[in-house]
Design a protein that fits this description.
Layout: E1 2-5, H1 14-24, H2 33-40, E2 45-52, E3 55-64, E4 68-76, H3 85-95, E5 100-105, H4 111-122, E6 125-127, E7 132-134, E8 144-151, H5 157-171
Parallel strand pairs: 4-5
Antiparallel strand pairs: 1-2, 2-3, 3-4, 5-8, 6-8, 7-8
């Protein structure tokens, strides 16, 4: 499997990323193309695409902050889910980082969300107890409740406050 840095909308893998991104996340969790272009210009933002032979498998978009890594979006092609790619990619990603890795998932309300939480637990993530509302990416939508997960350990309230500040002032600064 090959890891490829996608760093602009003209990159050969950008269209594969964009197609998966638009189907894997609801519209209120998606950046517009203009917002995506601005994210590419930020030194803390990274988009890693994964492919095997000529098949685009998935991607991780993340922000590399001083104390932690924030995975903003992670998706595997729907036809390849259940093949082990997701855990391989995520475990490899975590093993390459010395910092805490943080991400968010939907609240646990059904079998799919329970399965997603089990997946992340198997990959080494812990649930954090903080009530968390992620701001909307687009106008006309409201923030949505998510659960914060982290590797290594549950983060302290001061660490969560830093994440909240970074999320609002850096990640979501262009909405």
């Amino acid at each position: 499997m090959e890891l490829i840095n996608i760093d602009n909308i003209a990159h050969p893998l950008y269209d594969s990323f964009s197609k998966l991104y638009s189907t894997a996340f609801p519209i209120f969790e998606q950046r517009t193309e203009t917002q995506q272009t601005r994210a590419f210009s930020h030194p803390k933002y990274h988009l890693s695409g994964y492919k095997e032979e000529d098949i685009f498998i998935g991607f991780i978009s993340y922000w590399d902050f001083q104390e932690y890594i924030y995975i903003e979006h992670f998706a595997i092609d729907r036809q390849l889910r259940g093949s082990g790619y997701g855990s391989r990619i995520l475990k490899d990603f975590i093993s390459r980082k010395s910092k805490i890795v943080l991400l968010e998932i939907d609240p646990i309300t059904d079998d799919i969300s329970r399965s997603r939480l089990r997946f992340y637990r198997k990959c080494g993530f812990y649930e954090n107890p903080y009530p968390h509302i992620h701001p909307p990416y687009r106008e006309g939508y409201t923030g949505h409740k998510l659960i914060v997960l982290t590797t290594q350990h549950v983060i302290a309230s001061q660490e969560y406050a830093i994440f909240q500040k970074d999320l609002h002032e850096t990640v979501m600064s262009d909405r």
